[in-house]
Structure formats: structure tokens, C-alpha cells
Amino acid sequence: MHINKLLDKICSLNNVSVVGRTTLGTPIPMVSLGNKKDGGVLIVGAVHAREYITAYLLYELIQEYDGDYPVDVIPILNIDGAILSKEGLNELPLKVRERTTVLRLNDGSTDFSLWKANIRGVDINVNFPADWGKGKYNITHPAPANYIGPCPFSEWETVAVMDAINARDYALVIAYHSKGEEVYYGFGDNKYYKKEAQMLANHLGYKLKRTPHSTGGLKDYFTLTTGRLGLTVEVGKDSFLHPYPLTELQSLKKQHSGVIAQATEIADILWTQKYVL
Ligand SMILES: [Zn+2]
Given CB 3.0 to 4.6 Å as the disulfide criterion, which of 2, 72, 141, 176 pairs with 54? Predict the structure, then answer.
């Protein structure tokens, strides 16, 4: 299924709003589940372009959730990048000069399958203000991956997530990435809520880990600014190459079944018993 078709399907679900627009102006949809009340879970997929399988997976998972607890899902954040990685340069409305720039960043190759960044060559998951620019793999010029951007929040996609986070008092934020079958938690010295993070890892059968070299990520930003639990979920086995094959979607769906409900349980525990707000 083409990404534009997936976007049409997402937008045809109930309770869809727009949290912002991509660099190329495409509306970024968010699906709101459950009844409105305090707390809540935010789940964001396809932060990295080549990890677009997470968008397809979240679209499937949204449809199985029937709980009351509020959950907002942005299945595909980096829409421009995902289209570039999956479907190529010709599927994007680029001016000649923009095409030339994107091709140059990709060393002249028209194979963009390993592209992670947005269409400007900024890696959204190092563009958040959480020790911005201090990550081990950060680079300071536009590229298919790891460029931190000219300043934090320089990208529309990053701003869209910030706006979503600011609009609601989320108890738990989860970013879906691929791959490695791991769940990351904590930021810097903050390693609170390990037990709750472990609950999600156990549900998936994934390993729980910390990310000592990660800065500027969505999980990092939420953890740093709120002191609450932010998680990164790395979907899928490392034995597959990037981009994770869409033929594995059904198997991932099986493995992730019930994960949204599990996330709401964790959020509820954190909100009512743990967080000092
Ligand atoms: Zn990623």
C-alpha cells in the first residue's frame, strides 16, 4: 500500500486531527482514541524515514484498541521522508533545485531506501532540545541521517510533536522505531520508572535498555522536560535489513497486539500512583 493511501486510510478513521504539517506541507494526522480525561498516552511512528513499517503497524494497532483511556497516535510523522525512502524522489512535489539538493545529499544516488532524515536532510530524532548537539553520532551538515539541524525545533515535524505534547498532559510518550527488538528508557542520569518501562518490554518480549549516547530525541525531550516516562520501541528483529520488510507486518502485528492497552495500564499506574505533579 502506498503511503498516500495509508494517509487516506488514517484520515478516514474517527477522531482525526492535524498536529502540524511536514516540510513539504502535508498535514500530519493524529488519531485520538478513548474518552477524554487527564493523563493519556502519545505514540509516534515513522520518526525516521526508512522505518515507515511502524506507520503501517500503528495503523493496524489503532484499530484493535477499544479502551476508555485516552491515547493519541501520530502513525507517521516524517511523511516526506517515508515517501522518499519507500517510493522515491518522483513521488514528492519537489522543485528542480530541491531535487538537486536531495540527490546531492544522497551522493547522487536515486536509491533513497536507507534515508532516515526529513526532506531537508535533518534527522528529526536529534532535533529536539534535550542536550541538543551532544550526541555521539551527531553531525552538523544536512545528510540522510544524524544531522541535528541548524537549531533545536528547526523542523516542522519536530514542532508538530512539541505542539502535540504541549496540548495535553501526557503520562507516557512512546516513539516507534525500527529495529532491534528493544525498548529504551531514561535520559542522562534519569532512570526513573524502570519497572513500568519493563512492563512494556515484557509485553513485547523485547529487551529493556538505556541510551547513554542518545540526545535530542523525542523520548529524551519528553523525559527531560516532564520528568515522566518516555520510551523508544525498536520494532523487529535485527536479522532483517533496513527498511524493515512490509511482508513482516502481520508477524509484527501479532507481536504488538494489545500493546496500546498495556501502555494505557502503565500510564494509569504512573499518573495515579507515581508522578508528583
Ligand atoms: Zn529510528
Answer: 176
CA–centroid distance, residue 37 to ligand 1 (Å): 30
| Structure confidence at residue 275 (pLDDT) | 72
pLDDT confidence of residue 276? 58
Mean pLDDT of the chain: 96
Cα(184)–Cα(234) distance, integer angstroms: 8
Q: Does residue 67 lie in a domain region?
A: yes
Domain enclosing residue 163, as ranges: 3-80+157-274
CA of 276 to the centre of ligand 1 (A): 31
Distance from C-alpha of 234 to C-alpha of 209, rounded to nearest angstrom? 11
Q: Is residue 183 part of a domain?
A: yes
CATH number reported for the structural domain that contains residue 21 in this entry: 3.40.630.10
Contact 252, 235 (CB under 8 A): yes
**Entry pTM:** 0.97
Q: Is the dihedral of CA 164, 39, 263, 215 positive or negative?
A: positive
pLDDT average, residue stretch 61-85 = 97
- Is residue 49 one of the residues assigned to a domain? yes
**% of residues, the chain, pLDDT over 90:** 92
- d(C-alpha 192, C-alpha 4), whole Å: 39
Which tens digits make up the pLDDT trace of 203-242? 999 999 998 788 999 999 999 999 999 999 999 999 999 9
Position 214 scores a pLDDT of: 85
| Spacing, Cα 7 to ligand 1 middle (Å) | 20
* Residue 65 placed within a domain: yes
Q: Which residues surround ligand 1, an ion (CB under 5 A)?
A: 48, 51, 177
